[in-house]
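Quick one:
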Amino acid sequence: MNDVDLDEALAAFRADVPEMTEDAFLLGKVRLEAATEPCPEPLPEPTPLTVRTEVLNVQRRRRPSMRRRLVPWLTAAAAVLIAVGTTVALRSNDHQPAAGRPEVNKTYPKAPQRPARIPSATRGTPLPPVSVVYNAAGELTASDLPQQPGQYLTMGRYEWGMPGMVRGDIRGAMDMDSEGFWEEWVPADRSGVWRLVRDVDTRRANTRDQDEPQWPTMVSGLSYQEGTFEAPKGEYFPPTQGTWTDPTEQFIAGLPRDPRELYTRLAADAAETPDPPGVAVQLAGSLLNRPVPADVRRAIYQALSYHPWVRVSTDARTRDGRAAVSLTVDNLESTRSVVLLIDPANGLLIGTREIRMVADHPDSPAGTVASETTTHWAVVDGLGK
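Output:
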């Protein structure tokens, strides 16, 4: 059998299979790498990284006959991964998003020119109304880690140069010498007691402010910035209003699962800020930093696919070397590029990064990392394990 005979036979085999898109090919490749690579050993603390941007050659040449032969098997492998993720999601979520997955073409419409920021403006140009899919964010899958009654979902987040605010206030002042962590245990029954061990800066003692109340949820510690806390539903610092940066069960339940409606909600909630396009992605990232269910994460990624100025890359890495898909937007107010790093296997946020768009001073040139986090998720059998 020659190449022509083989191509004709495979053409009949693939008659009902859609044409492989470049984005689906790259995302499938990253998912396979993430699923098969060994878990790296923890790395020693590195110095702030210099980010190097590379442009993928999406027009790379392949021999036509070889590509047609490879596509069915790559498609089948990707389908297995997607099927596994879907099974987990169905077991761990009560409902699916109201709208289906956006159809992403091989190429995307050119984004409109982004308006320049007006200096000293307290309210920037809002995001445009939802229209078309501009990027491949909606191709990200999302699933929950299987969790049985009595087990705890753990989240360990480590922070370098983060705002000195326990709740992740996006307007917090940057302290480039800070180094902190957030470790949390979340019960399978989300109404049960959660535990938080928190230190916003391990390099100095965070003493109690004069006007800081005595928190009834504090088990031990010095202040709300450094200590151990336990509280039903994870409401460690009541009263909790329910926001993107400090979500409650009611806030999450009230978010639309329809991607177009969720994009509109993000745009509206960011509209009163100096840079709505940048802040909208930061709000989404703040929510992804919490243990939110897969249907919410899936809806967020699909909503961000309508954001005209989000950039997607499939070859990103976290600070500790894990493969990730990055979603990046420029915040023109803070002059930082905000990067969300997503695990391609399950859609969990596994890191963030802020990159200087302009030099802060000669030792901090444009393109260097200003702040960074890494996050690890797991399921354990007991509180504090």
